What we know:
The complex is a heterotrimer of chains A (about 250), B (about 170) and C (about 140).
Chain A: H1 3-19, E1 22-24, E2 28-31, E3 39-48, E4 54-61, E5 66-70, E6 74-75, E7 80-88, E8 94-104, E9 111-120, E10 124-127, E11 130-134, E12 142-148, E13 157-161, E14 166-174, E15 177-184, E16 192-199, E17 206-213
Parallel strand pairs in A: 2-9, 11-17
Antiparallel strand pairs in A: 1-3, 3-7, 4-6, 4-8, 5-7, 8-9, 10-12, 12-15, 13-16, 14-15, 16-17
Chain B: H1 5-54, H2 56-65, H3 71-94, H4 98-121, E1 130-133, H5 140-163
Helix pairs in contact in B: 1-3, 1-5, 2-3, 3-4, 4-5
Chain C: H1 2-26, E1 42-43, H2 45-50, E2 55-59, H3 63-68, E3 75-76, H4 82-92, E4 98-102, H5 110-120, E5 127-130, H6 133-141
Parallel strand pairs in C: 1-5, 2-3, 2-4, 4-5
Amino acid sequence: MKTPIFAFTLSMIMCLGARAELKWEQTTVELHPAPNDKQAIGHFKYQNTGKTPVHFKSVHASCGCTTAQTQKEEVPPGDKGEITATFNIGDRTGTQIKTVTVETDEATNQKTVLTLKAEIPQQLEVTPNFVFWKQGDKPDSKTINIKVGKDFTVKHIKVTSSTPDFQAKVEDAGSGQFKIDVKPQDTNKVVASMLTIQPEDSQKVFYATARITNVPTAPVAPAGQKPPVAPAAPTAPARPTAPTGQTH
Amino acid sequence: MNQAPNAHSPTLNVESSADATTSNVKHRTSNILWRILDFVIGGIFIYAGALKGLDPVQFASDIDNYKILPWPISVALAFYLPWLEIFCALGLVFRFLYRGALSILTTLIVVFTLATIAAKVRGLDITCGCFGHASQHWSFASHLATNLTILAALFALGFSNRLRKPS
Amino acid sequence: MKFLLARQAAVLAAVALLPAAGEAIYFRNNISWRSAIAPSEMVTLEQARAWGDAAIWVDARPDDEFARDHVPGALSLNEDRWNELLPQFLAVWSPGKKMVVYCSSLSCNASREVARRLRKEAQLSDVFVLEGGWEAWLKKNK
Lengths: 248, 167, 142
């Protein structure tokens, strides 16, 4: 009674596996670029295990920051090759997932999705990187939290403000965390300052912005305005920092 | 030739009652073992169902990643499946609606496994979503192995249920 | 006995519908049944234009695409040059503004990533992603 079901399942597995001609060594590559790397490159190796040549109809990436190159347009039977995906990191942080969709003229399995997963190491996480006061607000200090990335050790950080309108004080909160207290001299004038955050012994600098903004004159909340995203709270803790929709 | 038949019987009786005791012990032991398996498998499904039920938004996204079903169906399943798993698992643990629960769980596992295999063959990289986002770092092989083990356990429970006395 | 099994399964299937429906109602604001992005984060072209001057248009596409054409008055903010572009953006922002982030077509992730970073790093509220993206704008304006 139950054995036919098992046999069916097993034959489906065999069936699905046998027909693809282009065999990929792996369709997901995980990369760990160094902190100063500008690119992360993934190599997707394949082999034509079928009896007929395979042509690449198209190879395109999920975003503009990733380019993909095939070495050849046609793969004769038995031949091996690779698709090289180059991901330009830019100022991206955290877990980045980019995909390259490959279309071939195979009988089945024409579309293969190659996934590049890159962990971008971040020395400091600055949250928030923007603090502001409205004109006329009380000039209370606001806190910026600094968290040191888990593969890094930072003992001291230096913070300087580009204008004397704001004062920044650093406090070591322990266990890889710092607090920066930012206080405006007053909130009378509309001014802005760039706060430069530099870890000791490091070339890399991080930035935060401090501003006094003008008070909005137009009415801010028309009827029917949706409230700020409180309902999103239950889902936020469950998600990793940067999932992208299509593939994981 | 004319033996004393009465002399025989007591011995026979002793033997057969000894057999009955042994088979009773065996029966009880195997019953306990099957119940332990009920608890283990039930526990696994309650855990998996709870993980998915806590974040249905993420689960809907995980189902969508298989690219088999349209989005609205993924959303509906994301809300429904965890509860189905949990209730069936409870049925296993507390032995109510046992056969129905067992067959639903078996069907679910078979479907999840086929979907995982289909996705792998199509070259999609997905996190399975079976154990919520907790299982996203598992490899395809460990997903498959886990699913097949659970499937085997469910089949075993199904078979044993035939042989056990109906409760 | 087959009947018994089917009946039991049907009961379980029906019972599970109740909490499922309850959860669907509880989470109704977090998930859109039409598309895979939270409804509170998306905005249609009509809604965005209705905001008039209260809206700041944010172009999340790469520099070359922005240079070729963009929504008039939009600011460029992409992840390639985030550290350089964010302070420029923040200098223009003021409280009460609604940000409309767009990139090419709904399937592109750049606008969602930029929106996410604006919410998480700069802790700005009222950050929205334009439904239909740049293509929706083109259709209405060219």
